[in-house]
Amino acid sequence: MPEAHDSMVVDVIWFLLSAVLAAIGVQRLKWSPVVGYLIAGIIIGPYGLGLVDYSAQIRHLAEFGIVFLMFTIGLDLSFSRLKAMRKIVFGLGGLQVSLTSVAIALLAIAFGVDMATAAVLGMALSLSSTAVVMRLLMDQEMIATRIGRRAFGVLLFQDIAVVPILLLVGLLIDGGGPRMSMAALIAIVQAVLAVGLVILLGRFAARPLFRMVAGVQSAELFAATTLLVVLVAAWLLESAGLSMELGAFLAGMMLAETEYHTQVQLDIAPYRGLLLGLFFITIGMAIDPQLLLAKAHWILLVLAALLITKTAFAVILARFFGLAAGESWRFALLLAQGGEFAFVVFAAAMTGGLLDMGTAQILIVVVGVSVAVTPALDALGGLIERHLMVAGVPGKADLPDTASELEGHVIIAGFGRVGRILATVLSGQNISYVALDLNARNIAKATRRGLPVFYGNAANADIMRAAGLGRASAVVVTLDSALAAGRAVQMARRLNPGIPIIVRARDHVHSDDLEALGATASVPETLESSLQLGGQVLRTLGLPPATADEVVNNLRADDYAGIRKSDMNGI
């Protein structure tokens, strides 16, 4: 027993060391972490230096990375978000996965692959890399653009599709014909019952449980409760004959409807990242470099077929769903790679005997290389987009069409300097927005980048309705003109009495006027800039940063009451 224990500890040490070195290496080379983890797995695995055995214990531990990934995906799938984006998610996303799956499966059959395995390959390779694409979109502030919204919608559908894909792989492993049809029917009934049960538990048990835990005000207890919910849901679904991944996914959807989902996401992120890295390392351990060198021509052929097939279908669908020619090419190349979940599907297919080890290794490398070249593909898409862009607004989207795809978004009135900074902040947090402005130059610059900025007066009722005021989560008024800002506040409050309205004000007098017109909160520029300047002075004079921040926050508290009093007294 001590020897086995020591062996496990050494294995964990090698895993953690390789994960750390891989993360540092890919960050410097600006590669995807997935590629780094795969390479690390090859190096420490049985076909490399042989530092870690590819044991059943290691594989079972790695499965928890997928469990936590599915849980976080479920957390992002609130019903309101799906409803607002249903045309993109289920229309564009559904067609992309369906058509690409069929096309890849037919190509595989043409090369002599049997039908069941071809179906698995089609479904697995139709998926794209959510982690890599979302990172690129956020880095380039493209989340709110036409390309970004459609790419996000497709990725969202692909994440949802992973659950039925894994169920179908299980059915293909069990066999075909009438037995498969009956098994499929039973699996569907089981899935429906499981979804219903988890939703009921979420409605009547999860929220009260987290409310009690939050009342204790212990971060450790809250994190432990989150882990408990994930593992219990995974265990229950596995005990019912379904997958642990499905249980975690449903648990995430259950918590997505509660007010605690943001904190849950923050608590689960470190565990998910660590265990997911472990999963990719174990995938890399199964790769034989010598076999890959012998099959290099097949790897290049499959890689080319994958990129061309996915790009061709995505370009056609993007045009059908309202993107301009150049935007369609960038959208398609952005999603041309394989995805992380292909590894999950390959692992399930290998376990069930649908995929032999040699073919799986080739496919794993193909997906890994496609992920690695995604930044280059996106750069190529950007060049094509700029080359094909015509003068004026690229594409044919208008305000009502754009706003109809959104729910819970922010309406920004004014897209000058302050509005642009606000848009950057929102994009960085994956929060959708629609901006209105009357400056043609501001609009032209924004629309050339594909940003959702439109010509319109925020004091106009029709414009605000077209911007989706009834479905928005907040209105932010950043207009320079005091008169225009006041009118925008009045109109937003009249059309939607309950919506939060945050306003940029000149000083505390202007702030009081705007709040009297209906603003929920205002930020006086002169007071706020003075506070920031004062805080910087205190830090420069040697005051500890935490103390300086506390001084500033105390002055900011109670709506700048202390500063206003001093100003009124002429101090």
Structural class: mainly alpha
* Strand order within the widest beta sheet: 3-2-1-4-5-6
Question: Can you give the mean pLDDT?
Answer: 76
The radius of gyration over CA amounts to: 26 Å
- Mass-distribution shape: globular
Distance between the termini: 76 Å
Poorly predicted regions: 391-396
Number of helices: 26
Got a strand count?
6
Portion in strands: under 5%
- Helix amount: over 70%
**What characterizes the major β-sheet?**
6 strands, parallel
Sequence-ordered SSE layout with sheet pairings:
Elements: H1 2-29, H2 33-44, H3 56-75, H4 79-84, H5 86-110, H6 115-125, H7 130-139, H8 146-174, H9 177-216, H10 219-239, H11 244-256, H12 261-285, H13 289-294, H14 296-320, H15 325-334, H16 340-351, H17 357-372, H18 374-388, H19 399-404, E1 410-413, H20 417-428, E2 433-437, H21 440-448, E3 453-455, H22 461-466, E4 474-477, H23 482-495, E5 501-505, H24 508-517, E6 521-524, H25 525-540, H26 545-568
Parallel strand pairs: 1-2, 1-4, 2-3, 4-5, 5-6
Helix pairs in contact: 1-2, 2-12, 3-11, 3-12, 5-6, 5-8, 5-14, 6-8, 6-16, 7-8, 8-9, 8-15, 8-16, 9-10, 9-11, 10-11, 14-15, 14-17, 15-18, 16-17, 23-24, 25-26
Would you kindly provide a written description of the structure presented here, covering whatever features stand out?
Helices cover 74% and strands 4% of the residues. It has a 6-stranded parallel beta sheet with strand order 3-2-1-4-5-6, sandwiched between helices. The longest helix has 40 residues, at 177-216. It is mainly alpha-helical.
